[in-house]
Design a protein that fits this description.
This is Universal stress protein family protein. This protein is α/β, with parallel strands linked by helices. It is built from five helices and five strands, in the order E-H-E-H-H-E-H-E-H-E. It has a domain of 106 residues. Strand 1, helix 1 and strand 2 form a beta-alpha-beta unit.
């Protein structure tokens, strides 16, 4: 089994990667962080992957390397994969992620997003395009730390309805 995490360096993508790494460690499963990088310096600047005036000129491998460092900081055991695309639309990014998911064949895709529940398939969301695939489960991460539910922390051998 493999857990796939679309990773764009955002706060919730980091949370999804952390959660996937925790589950992966507990279940002895592989984790793959996937970054889709549009070949567009304006897009990279807009999402905070690149700044005008950096010592290194914009390139997809350079941006992917920076995102890889973020993955390694959070989940050193995770594999990292990046894909380059020409178009920077959410639909194009989601299509590329779905294509890679067909190759990786994950059992679960961990999505860090705050707008999956707002409308069924938001135009600006990559998540909607990924979540619609029925070949894998989707774990939606909307908070960095999972909520603590004290009443669910039971003694070994007991049940919630006892």
């Amino acid at each position: 089994m493999t857990f796939l995490v679309p990773f764009d360096g955002s706060y919730l993508a980091e949370a999804a990667l952390l959660r996937a790494a925790e589950y992966g460690e507990a279940l002895d499963e592989d984790v793959v962080a996937l970054t889709v990088v549009p070949d567009d310096d304006a897009y990279a600047i807009d999402v905070g992957w690149y700044e005008d005036g950096e010592d290194e000129p914009f390139s997809v491998p350079y941006v992917a390397g920076k995102l890889h460092e973020g993955v390694t900081d959070i989940a050193p055991q995770a594999a990292f994969r990046y894909e380059r695309i020409d178009r920077q639309t959410p639909a194009a990014i989601a299509t590329q992620i779905r294509s890679i998911a067909e190759d990786v064949r994950p059992s679960v895709v961990f999505l860090g997003t705050d707008n999956v529940g707002e409308i069924a398939h938001p135009v600006t969301s990559v998540a909607g395009g990924i979540a619609e695939n029925p070949t894998y489960d989707v774990h939606v991460v909307r908070y960095y730390a999972p909520p603590s539910i004290p009443e669910m922390q039971l003694e070994e051998g007991s049940y919630a309805d006892e």
